[in-house]
Amino acid sequence: MLLTLLFLAARRGEVFRLKWADIDFAGNTVTLWTRKRAGGDLEPDPVPMVQRLKKVLMAWWEHRPIASEYVFVNLEEHAFCKEYRGKPFTNRQHLMERLCKKAGVREFGFHAIRHLTASLLYREGQPVAVAQAVLRHKSPQTTTRYLQTLGLKQTQEAMETVMGQRGPTKVVSIQKASQE
To answer: Which bin fits 30, alpha (ψ -120 to 50), beta or left (φ > 0)?
Structure first.
């Protein structure tokens, strides 16, 4: 599920609603269903599927423990979630918290994975338009807001690279003009 979020820059709900019928292995596309449009109706968004994700999803299809029309379903057998076994997720409120704790990293949520995909593309030199297409934003300003969160470190590094070697090679003192 995490790789699907990462490789598709998908929103949590889009992955939770993902059905096997939405995956076109032959055409290397996944249709995500989004509500992030005017009116809030579900609309299809076909997105490209990279080979690594295709391989992972095919393996999941072949070895899934529960046959369902949904790609990701509840597999838990704990008493409090037994009634949801085999049903699609509606939320996974503690999953990321548990995974982050297990990995020993600062806690982050599902949406941060979407930001990570955009950041990786941008840091590797892809234009903002590519990140915009991957994130499926209608407005480039929305994508730019995502990318501005890359932070001060990248800004300082860029300034150091471009400006760090410019200017005089030695400091020259400037004497005040005498007032008469």
So the answer is: beta
Provide the whole-model pTM.
0.74
Domain count, the chain: 2
33 pairs with which residues across the strands? Answer: 44
- Is 99 in a helix, a strand, or coil? helix
Domain interval for residue 112: 93-149
What are φ and ψ of residue 79, in 5° steps?
Answer: -55, -40
Order across the sheet with 29-34: list the strands.
Answer: 23-24, 29-34, 43-48
**The tokens of 137 are what?**
């934003």
- DSSP letter assigned to residue 172: -
pLDDT 10s digits, 41-52: 888 999 999 999
